Amino acid sequence: MDALTPVAIGLTAVSALGAGLVGGVFFAFSAFVMPGLADAPPKAGLAAMQGVNRAAVRPPLMVALFGTLLVGAAAAVLLAVEGAGHAVWWAVGGAVVYLGAVVGVTIGFHVPRNEALARVGVDDPDAVAIWSRYATEWTRGNHVRAVGGALAAALFGVAALTALL
C-alpha cells in the first residue's frame, strides 16, 4: 500500500457517502415531499415548489451535488494511478452512474422545468394545469436521480471495500 492509497480509499468512501446523501435527498422528494405538494391546493403546491427551487440553488445542496461528482472522479483517477485493480472499475462505475443519473438528469431534465415553473404566476389562467404536469413529470425524473444516487453510493462503497482488500 503506497502513500496515496489511504487518500484514494478516503475519497472513494466520501464519494459513497455523498452519493448516498444526495440520493437520499432525492428519495425524500419522491417519497413524500412531492406527493405532499401534489395533495395541496394546486396554487399552494406551485408556490411552495417555486420556493423550494429557489432555496435548492444554495451551497448545501450544490456542494453535495457537484462536490460528490468531483470527489468521485478524483477517487477513480487516484485508484487508477495506483493500479488498484477492480476497485478502479467500481469507482468508475459509480462516477459514471452519478454523472448520468444524478448530475445529468438534474441539469438536462430538472433545471429547465424548474426555470419554466419559476416564470408561472400562481394566478396565471393555466397555472393549475402547468403545476399538475410539472409535478408528475418532475417526480418521475426525480425517481431516476434517487435510484442513481443509491446505485452510485453502492458502487463507490464496493470500490472502497475492494481497494482495502
Task: Give a verbal description of the structure.
The protein is mainly α and 165 residues long. The protein has one domain (4-164). It contains 5 helices and no strands. The chain has helices at 4-39, 42-56, 59-81, 86-118, 127-164. Helix 1 (4-39) runs antiparallel to helix 2, helix 2 crosses helix 5 and helix 4 runs antiparallel to helix 5. 34% of the residues are buried. InterPro entries: Anthrone_oxy. The chain crosses the membrane at residues 12-38, 59-81, 87-109, 146-164. Keywords: Membrane, Transmembrane, Transmembrane helix. This is Putative membrane protein.
The averaged pLDDT comes out at 95
Q: Specify the overall morphology.
A: elongated
How many beta-strand runs? 0
The structural class is: mainly alpha
- Order of helical and strand elements: HHHHH
In the residues, how many domains can be counted?
1
Instruction: Report the helical percentage.
Output: over 70%
Number of helices: 5
Question: Notable features of this structure?
Answer:
single chain, 165 residues, mainly alpha, 5 helices, transmembrane, Anthrone_oxy, membrane, transmembrane helix
Brief rundown of the structure:
InterPro entries: Anthrone_oxy (IPR013901). By secondary structure, the chain is mainly alpha-helical.
